[in-house]
Amino acid sequence: MLKIGIVGAGRIGKVHTQSICNYVRNAKIKTIADPFMSEETAKWAKSLGVQNTTKDYKEILNDPEIGAVLICSSTDTHAKISVEAINAGKHVFCEKPIDHDVARIQEVIDALKGKKVKYQVGFNRRFDHNFEAVHEAVKAGKIGSPEIIKITSRDPEPPSPEYVKVSGGMFLDMTIHDFDMARFLVDSDVEEVYVQSAVLVDPAIGEAGDVDTAIITMKMANGALAVIDNCRRSSYGYDQRAEVFGSKGMAGIKNDAVSNCQIATDDGVTAEKPMFFFLERYMQAYSKEITSFVDAVVNDTPTPVNEYDGLQAVLIGLAAKKSAQEHRPVKVSEIENDK
Ligand SMILES: NC(=O)c1ccc[n+]([C@@H]2O[C@H](COP(=O)([O-])OP(=O)(O)OC[C@H]3O[C@@H](n4cnc5c(N)ncnc54)[C@H](O)[C@@H]3O)[C@@H](O)[C@H]2O)c1
Questions:
Q1: Residue 115, CB-side half-sphere exposure with 13 Å CA sphere
Q2: Which domains does the chain have, with CATH numbers?
């Protein structure tokens, strides 16, 4: 039985705790650490069978019984705690992004060199049953050679301006999942990015130095073209769709809803809205991604989303940021060469 330590008991730390306790075989959480650990959170952890809670994540790193660490703390702590955990010989699952700074991500990559520990990055959408089906169809050659990737990714409501200020901006916080998705769907890196962006939802987001709406076009290394459309507000719920068009056909998915019931009357046909947000839409994907991490550790196989994938998504995000600022196409290699 793999013993796990969770670093960070906020939104996503709680999601992973719940899914490990309820759905993941072969693994058990021994300790959860958070500097703001409250009695309420400690009680909640105990109710799920987690006995130890602490304010100091180093207790996890120094515990020889704990084999793997899930880093679910705020983004600015990911790279530092990753390096410390790797050096302590722990397998690491790190939430996205590893860092906003390429040099700090490189420190994690360097720490991994020559070590026998596994490293996985939290791009949970790869484990969603719908996106997985598109990936499988493309991989099996069912649509021929991929030519166009279309991703729609719209959040139901914008974050607070305070969150926007520390998030690294929309491209590194939100679109980063879509950059990873484009790479995943056609198994190819991204070469070039061009962005049109605007502040159409909330002027406070603009005042905080970010954008809330964007159309992003990308040239993939395999020759395919990709387009992502993003908005921080969608009145009908979390809008997450994708399609890959190729020489022999197209594979595409719709949103998930609580039910697929349609009501038809002489007024028209109505159906359920998409699920509200990521906690609703991706709960199954979160437990599948942690299961895949635990399997990689237990069976000593490669993790399905590694540090290279983590780095690529950030490089593309930085290229998108630069493209938006300078109103020109930016090659990902330009960002790599800036390192
Ligand atoms: N993959 C996804 O779908 C997804 C979804 C949400 C968040 N995230 C990522 O997860 C991370 C956390 O996001 P969140 O929404 O849970 O934020 P949050 O603010 O709800 O939680 C972060 C927690 O980390 C704790 N923390 C800060 N420093 C710590 C330290 N040194 N040791 C232990 N705990 C520490 C904070 O006290 C807080 O409780 C972010 O990097 C975010 O990008 C990923």
A1: 20
A2: 2-117 (3.40.50.720), 126-276+313-338 (3.30.360.10)
pLDDT of the residue at 337: 82
Measured from the Cα of 81, ligand 1's closest atom is 31
In whole angstroms, what is the distance from residue 70 CA to residue 57 CA? 11
The answer to whether the pTM exceeds 0.70 is yes
Pocket probe for ligand 1: among 80, 81, 95, 165, the residue whose CB has the most ligand atoms within 8 Å is 95
pLDDT tens digit string along 24-38?
A: 989 999 999 999 999
Q: Which residue has the tokens 């290699």?
A: 333
What are 283's two structure tokens?
């709960």
Tell how far the Cα of 225 is from the centroid of ligand 1, in angstroms: 33
How far is the centre of ligand 1, averaged over its atoms, from the C-alpha of 138 (Å)? 33
Residue 238 has, within 13 A of its CA and on its CB side, a CA count of 13
Indicate which residue's Cα is closest to atom 1 of ligand 1: 122
